[in-house]
Amino acid sequence: DGGITQSPKYLFRKEGQNVTLSCEQNLNHDAMYWYRQDPGQGLRLIYYSQIVNDFQKGDIAEGYSVSREKKESFPLTVTSAQKNPTAFYLCASSIDHTAYEQYFGPGTRLTVT
Amino acid sequence: AQKVTQAQTEISVVEKEDVTLDCVYETRDTTYYLFWYKQPPSGELVFLIRRNSFDEQNEISGRYSWNFQKSTSSFNFTITASQVVDSAVYFCALSATDSWGKLQFGAGTQVVVTP
Known about the structure:
The complex is a heterodimer of chains A (113) and B (115).
Chain A: E1 4-7, E2 10-13, E3 19-25, E4 31-37, E5 43-49, E6 56-57, E7 64-66, E8 76-78, E9 87-94, E10 103-104, E11 108-112
Parallel strand pairs in A: 2-11
Antiparallel strand pairs in A: 1-3, 3-8, 4-5, 4-9, 5-6, 7-8, 9-10, 9-11
Chain B: E1 3-5, E2 10-14, E3 19-21, E4 24-26, E5 32-39, E6 46-52, E7 59-61, E8 64-69, E9 74-79, E10 88-96, E11 104-105, E12 109-114
Parallel strand pairs in B: 2-12
Antiparallel strand pairs in B: 1-4, 3-9, 5-6, 5-10, 7-8, 8-9, 10-11, 10-12
């Protein structure tokens, strides 16, 4: 089945630790995105990538880093510099970087204490 | 700058009632796309519809219908004869053609359907 996988579903970390969230897609999509969702709020864009080996900052990139070494994979690292890392993180992909619909993974709920 | 406003935070209905979700958007672009997504309690966003700014025809898909009015910058969504499975958060989103696919989301509307 084609789709987007994110692992793990729930992640717990101690403050000061970096943590990497996985996102894999087998839809052969060029573009991939990371969003953050806080309770009662819409999604905010963290980073996006239009093609392999290229990525751009979104609206709230501070404290995050990404890589895009393979078309299928777009991991997100939440660094210790992110002041409020506890949130629900959603990965998405689309055919390309134009305005096609994005398809989302199941999300990772990160809790940092 | 682009902005999407979903003024309704939560709507509660009894099963079989109709429910309309409002979405108002702002953009300076002449070509743009509008989207609706559903987020059930599991958390994953489900794509429902994509509409471009040149196509103002209303659309119906089963119990779902969408009313796009460019004159009022609105893209409203109606669920007819609601069911408990329709309980979810619904997001409206906007993307301009030169924004590299970036979606601007509204805050979402929680729909609660009770039996």
